[in-house]
Design brief:
single chain, 72 residues, alpha+beta, Double Stranded RNA Binding Domain, 1 helix, 26% helix, 35% strand
Length: 72
């Protein structure tokens, strides 16, 4: 799992293996100060699968940053 802070939010990027052994990226975004109201569901990219965990986590991290940049 990789964690960073980005523009007032904490991102926890992770990945899990599917039944075929591919790594599926996911990320949880939460406000650092607790004052912002965002959806609590993790972001999961089922259409993006990777051969190894570090690549999947990197994708989740970059995608979550983009999500924050475009939605908050």
């Amino acid at each position: 799992m990789r964690e960073i802070n980005h523009k007032g939010y904490q991102i926890k990027a992770d990945a899990y293996q599917d039944e075929e052994g591919k790594w599926v990226p996911r990320a949880e975004i939460s406000p650092i100060d607790g004052s912002k109201n965002i959806e609590e569901s993790p972001l999961v990219w089922l259409s993006e699968k990777f051969e190894d965990r570090p690549k999947a986590e990197g994708f989740a991290l970059e995608s979550a940053q983009f999500y924050i940049d475009t939605n908050f």
